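Box 3.1 A note on notation
Throughout this textbook, protein chains are presented in two layers. The first layer is the amino acid sequence; the second is a token string describing backbone geometry. Keep the layers aligned when reading.
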Amino acid sequence: MTQRTDTRRQTVFHHPDQGVTLDFVEQRKIKFTLAAGSGWRSPYHWHVLHHGCRRITCLQGCILATTETPYGGSGSSAGDPGTYEIIRPGDLHVWSSQNPDQELIVLLEAEDEILYRNTSSATLDATRFPFLVSTPFWVKLLYSLLAFSPAAQRLIIARLLWIQLQMMYFAHDFWVHHGSVNAPYFWHSTHPYSFE
């Protein structure tokens, strides 16, 4: 049976399909390198209990950081090398390259580097998941039944990876913003009765 790759001592994780490399330079400091044309961006998220992303410093290229505070303030800022963004608990934030055609190198000071190590490991091992000892039998069965369609197998792997990542985010105080629906507007625009 297949085992997960042992990445406990690995310091560099390269994700060629996303064009991003994570380098664990020292404790609680991760250097992200976004290749030119990668289009990668961090998930739109916030941290409740601690400084998950304490400080984001641009080392090369031009970073675009967007934050929204729970106190009503929001904004985007672009920064050249040497600029940084301080993130407080509760701030909804996302960052990416302002110029996707250029390489971006960012130093992220994170409270919980295990999250980034685990999510990188799961992403790199995604194609192994249907064959792991710990994989539920029904997943192995479904994957083998879809052997006639490699596209369906890739879809299953992508969905299972998404579920694993959401569970890891939840366990490490990394709350991803999945969007919202304006329910009162939807109700009033579709309901046949008037409340005047």
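The two ends are 66 Å apart (CA to CA). The chain has one domain: 12-176.
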